[in-house]
C-alpha cells in the first residue's frame, strides 16, 4: 500500500482594489472578500483628512497599501490578520 501526501501551499490574499469612505478603509482581496477597517486604528490615518484617506494606492503586488502624502504603509496580510496598533474605539 502506498501513501500519497498532498501538500497545500498557503497563499496570502492580496489587494486588487482599495478605497476609503466615511473614515473606513476598504480592501477587495484576490479571494473575493472585501474587508474594511476604521482609519482610527492607525495613528497617521486617524489624523488624516477624508481627502488624504482617499489617496490610498496598492503597492508590492497587492501586499501593501500606501498613502504617499502621509508617508504611511500598511501590509495587507497584517490587515487580514487583524493586526492593528490602536484599539477599536466607538465614537
Ends distance: 63 Å
Query: What level of helicity do the residues show?
Result: 10-25%
Instruction: Supply the number of helical segments.
Output: 3
Order of helices and strands: EEEHHEEEH
The strand count comes to 6
Low-confidence stretches: none
Mean pLDDT, to the nearest integer, reads 92
Question: How would you classify the helix and strand content by structural class?
Answer: alpha+beta
Percent of residues in β-strands: 25-35%
Please outline the major beta sheet: 3 strands, antiparallel
Can you lay out the helices and strands and say which pair or pack?
Layout: E1 15-21, E2 24-29, E3 34-38, H1 43-47, H2 50-53, E4 57-59, E5 64-67, E6 72-75, H3 76-81
Short description:
The protein has 91 residues and is α+β, with helices and mostly antiparallel strands. It contains three helices and six strands. The longest helix is centred in the last third of the chain and has 6 residues, at 76-81.
Task: Give a quick set of tags describing it.
single chain; 6 strands; alpha+beta; 91 residues; 3 helices
What does it look like?
The N and C termini lie far apart (63 Å). It is built from three helices and six strands; from the N terminus they run βββααβββα. The protein has 91 residues and is an alpha+beta fold. The protein has helices at 43-47, 50-53, 76-81; strands at residues 15-21, 24-29, 34-38, 57-59, 64-67, 72-75. Strand 5 and strand 6 (72-75) form a beta hairpin.
Amino acid at each position: 500500500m502506498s501513501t500519497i501526501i498532498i501538500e497545500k501551499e498557503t497563499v496570502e490574499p492580496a489587494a486588487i482594489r482599495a478605497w476609503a469612505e466615511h473614515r473606513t478603509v476598504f480592501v477587495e482581496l484576490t479571494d473575493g472578500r472585501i474587508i474594511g477597517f476604521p482609519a482610527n486604528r492607525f495613528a497617521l490615518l486617524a489624523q488624516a483628512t477624508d481627502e488624504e484617506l482617499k489617496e490610498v494606492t496598492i503597492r508590492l503586488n497587492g501586499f501593501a497599501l500606501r498613502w504617499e502624502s502621509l508617508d504611511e504603509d500598511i501590509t495587507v496580510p497584517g490587515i487580514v490578520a487583524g493586526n492593528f496598533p490602536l484599539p477599536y474605539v466607538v465614537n
